[in-house]
Amino acid sequence: MSLIGGIRPPIAVLSVLLLSLAGITALVLGRVDNAGVPKAVLTSQQHFAEDGAIALRASIDESVTDLTRSAALFSAGQPVTGDAVLDKLGSTYQKWTGTAVVEIRTGKLVAARGETVPLTSVNTATLGDEGGLAPRMVRLKNGETRLLSLALLSWPGKPQLLLVASSNLTFPGISIGQFRSIAVADRDGAILSSDGIPEPEQVRTSTDRKEIKLSRKQLEAFAEFAARKARQDPRSSKEPGMGGYQGVSGSTVGGRVLSDRSVAGYATLAAPSPGETTTASGLGLSVVAMVKVSEDPTRAHSLVFGLLAGAALLVVGSIAVAVLLGTVQRPLIRLFLESRRLTRGDLTRPVTVPGYGEAHRVGHALERLRRQLLGESAEDTGPAARPRGLRKVGTRALLVGCAVLLLAWSVPLMLLINRADSTAVVPQQLVSDQRERTDTLSDRVRRALNEGSADLDSVGSLIGNRTEPEAMAKVLERTLDENRRYRSLYVVDSSGEILAREGKEPKLIRSHRVSDTAIRLLGHGGKQPVVVANTEIPGRDGAQLVGEFRVEFFNALLTRPGMGVVRLVDDHEKVIAGNTGFLAFQSLPDDHLKDLVAASAQRLGKKARANGVLYRDNGVRIAAAAPFAGSGPAEALGWSVVSWQPAGRLDIPQYDAQNRTVLAGLLGSAAAVACLGWLHIVVARPLRSLAGRSEALAGGDRKTVLFPQHHDEVGAVTRSLELIRQQLHDQRRQSPRRTQPQASAPQQYTRN
Questions:
Q1: How far is Cα 392 from Cα 401, in angstroms, rounded to an integer?
Q2: Cross-strand bridge partners of residue 180
Q3: pLDDT for 77-94, tens place per residue?
Q4: Comparing C-alpha atoms, which of 20, 23, 72 is closest to residue 478?
Q5: For residues 238 and 225, what is the distance between their CA atoms, to the nearest angstrom?
Q6: How many CA atoms lie within 13 A of 627 on its CB side?
Q7: Is the pLDDT of residue 467 over 90?
Q8: From CA 495, how far away is CA 510, in angstroms rounded?
């Protein structure tokens, strides 16, 4: 018999699948979840740490790039004093704790601003070596760590100067909430900077001081754990198929801090694209985000449900398999044996006729053929069988009945049982994380706009009134190469005429190119929003440097895993950018989100604050909105970042149980449909056709040749019927022809 055909393989496969599914159902649906901390909370902490690592990496790389570019622009112009360089840097950027200019040949301090820069850690004799100007971390006497960025100031005929900028390793614009702490750790797991844990002298009670001590100890343990994990390959640090963050990242559960459980996420500083290396990613830093969550000991699933579901499937599956064995497989095998007996010439015993459906018709036809082989005519053997009552139930009806029986177990699991409806418990920590991550994204976009405007201010002031258009083009080309946030950079005069341009064709018409507003949003009603930054070039009679931002730049900033749909909206709740497909200036999808954005924009005290909400109408959903809050020209735009995602996509116990239940139902349905459909194709349809052909043969059709379609039981019966047809045909040819007797002529009597 064929391995893929016949009656036995589908029933055997169905039996194995149902038995396996029953075991899986009993184990999986009855799995007890006593972890206390949902996996969704752990994943959220991992994403939070990744956000912090991205922000810190971008801040460090941006700081080094700004210092290097500013030094190059200063070197390309007329010689200026060290004080002028530091004053200009201080007025344009507010990102360094201290700056200094040192004469390289003598080591003399030329100028200094802000915090004292630890210049003793800079060896000017090795600046010409490979990597001599690379940033470096320096630990101060008070235990704090500073990152030193270096750049050269060179003018013909002037002593070469070294520009040094010192910055701390703090997170720019990271919203950590009330119960979270975040830290930066080096390769050895030592904490370089931290935020979120107060100092012992800031609290009053001994209980609070004990909690602070335990929290610091737990954070140090997490930092050491993250440092060990950071040594592995990023590709092996995640589960297969996860993708996402390019560096090493993950989450872990710590010990108890008083009545709460400590959980943490960690992430190494990594380049945004695979195979790349940036200044920050080469420092060997890791970010650790720790939060204390309340455990829910009642969040457990009983073993009874899984055992009952598995037992029910065993009962239902046993009935279905028994029906298939008793009413489909055994009658068909009996027909196969009876047909083989007839072809061997054993005609003494009557054919055992099955009781139902097509098998009954084929068995009755075989009995008629047996009698015909013994010499009876087709008319004498009687008419074809016409089953009545239950005997009319065919193979297809039996398969449908088995399918209904199996689906009666599967469909309730898919649609009715273990449904996580509006009563699902969504941890408050997830709502807080959605709010804080949205606030972080909002600050990240705002800082990116401010950085872009500051870059234009720096470039515009250095162009001055003596730079020729050809030199302008070179400066613009270099700026465009170093800053991928712009799609086009160009210098215009007071009338809007372009004097020099780099990048793509400007989208602004001439009358809109000159403006007193630092950052503008244009393009309303068009297919794409146009975000433009302007800065005046001193000494050029109203000439301005204009930069048009790329929409893809904002889309990339908003693309973070685990946040669902993210949108950047203007002050009228119209969409400007997003992490998924959108139409420019379209409205938010529902009034709840619009109200959330409007409520977040209301000032509470000095500034507006981010809000997070859990909606339970039309499905459980987490949403958050965060307006631009902070300094810089971008704040005046009034933009907000809003995000939302259905709770069903999160790894919450109730939804996890629902998903496992639905999966069990889907597997049961798939097994039933696949195996019973297999039976219908290889058995039911050929058997129905065979019944008609066998009855035709028994009725006297000796001309139709019977060809088997498959090498299985039905095909074997077909071959036997073909042999019987040939025997009957030969028997008919060998029997003497019967001639009709001639009518005798009427006897004539003659008279004598």
A1: 14
A2: 291
A3: 788 898 998 988 888 787
A4: 72
A5: 16
A6: 25
A7: no
A8: 8
CA–CA distance, 677 with 288 (Å, rounded to integer): 54
Chain center to CA of 547: 34
Element (H, E) at 17: helix 8-28
What is the spatial distance between Cα 220 and Cα 290, in angstroms, rounded to a whole number? 10
Distance separating alpha carbons of residues 177 and 161, to the nearest angstrom: 43
CA–CA separation, 577 vs 376, rounded Å? 88
Alpha-carbon distance 116 to 286, whole Å? 26
Residue 146's φ and ψ, nearest 5 degrees, are -125, 145
pTM as predicted: 0.77
- Given a cut of 50, whether residue 743 has pLDDT beyond it is no
**pLDDT at 751 (0 to 100):** 43
| Residue whose tokens read 């003793």 | 120
3-state SS string for 26-59: HHHCCCCCCCCCCHHHHHHHHHHHHHHHHHHHHH
Type of residue found at 746: P
pLDDT digits (tens, 9 = 90+) for 383-432: 776 766 666 678 888 899 999 999 999 999 998 888 877 677 888 889 99
**Helix extents (H) in 144-193:** none
Q: At what angle do helices 330-343 and 713-734 cross, to 10 degrees?
A: 30
Tokens of 239: 């589960």
Distance in angstroms (rounded) separating the CA atoms of residues 558 and 610 = 16
Which residue type sits at 282? G
The answer to whether 398 touches 324, Cβ cutoff 8 Å, is yes
What pLDDT is recorded for position 747?
45
